[in-house]
Design brief:
alpha+beta
Length: 156
């Protein structure tokens, strides 16, 4: 995707939404000194351009029983199978992120399971059957923070 050019209003809107995706459009409009309709149109433009990919609610995984977070790197036996492997990974609900990477791994994923034993079972029953080749797993003890990419405005 080509890099987009933003004016001050676009940047201010993106900055507000990245810190609180549930902020009402009218509140954004008041803070930006423009009409609610103008904010609505700008946000629709940002969505249509693919800049805003969506709005989400972040759920604490451990509060719904997912106590193990792991990152798994794949060494594909046949790199030409990349699209097929990604399609299969997309079907597995525990896989919450999937990246095509440079360096050591061909594919790098983030998964949540209910336990370490569940992670072992996940690897044996869900990953091995799709023929991903060799894997390396890193277990995360605790997520310290997560944030959106910074939106730099002239006022910041």
């Amino acid at each position: 995707m080509a890099r987009q050019q933003f004016d001050k209003l676009d940047l201010k809107i993106l900055n507000m939404l990245s810190s609180n995706a549930r902020k009402p459009f009218l509140e954004i409009a008041r803070e930006c000194n423009v009409s609610g309709a103008a904010i609505h149109q700008r946000i629709q433009k940002l969505i249509a351009a693919g800049i805003i990919k969506g709005f989400e609610s972040l759920i604490n995984p451990s509060s719904v029983g997912y106590d193990t977070c792991a990152y798994i790197g794949f060494f594909l036996n046949d790199p030409s199978r990349f699209p097929e492997i990604v399609e299969e990974l997309h079907k597995i609900p525990e896989v919450v992120e999937c990246h095509f990477t440079t360096g050591k791994y061909d594919i790098f994923i983030k998964v949540y399971t209910h336990s370490n034993e569940g992670l072992l079972n996940f690897i044996h029953t869900k990953l091995q059957p799709i023929g991903v080749g060799r894997t390396e797993t890193i277990i995360s003890f605790k997520e310290e923070f997560r944030r959106q990419v910074p939106i730099i405005t002239e006022e910041a």
